[in-house]
Specification:
Elements lengths: L49 H7 L2 H21 L8 H10 L5
Length: 102
Amino acid sequence: MHNDRCSPPQVNHWRTDGDYARYYQVPFRTLVQDKVQNLIPVGRMINADAGAFGAVRVMVNLNQLGEAAGTAAYLCLHRGCPVWQADGTEIRRLLIQGGSAL
């Protein structure tokens, strides 16, 4: 199912000082569940233990999770596959291309 009106996400380097943000890295697989085909639970609804949740619930990390989820949604829509088939390595590559990941 290809949607011609959908274009790749335009991810831009959001810092203005030319440096990359220092943030925690969260594996994409933490955003994937196998009960609802195209649901990406992102943000403060992420399933994490108390220690990890304390790190990922801050705004800069939630921003990065949102960008990863949006990129995954685009890839899956473009390929007609469920989110659980998204390739985390490819998502990271696209985020790096846009300047949003290291």
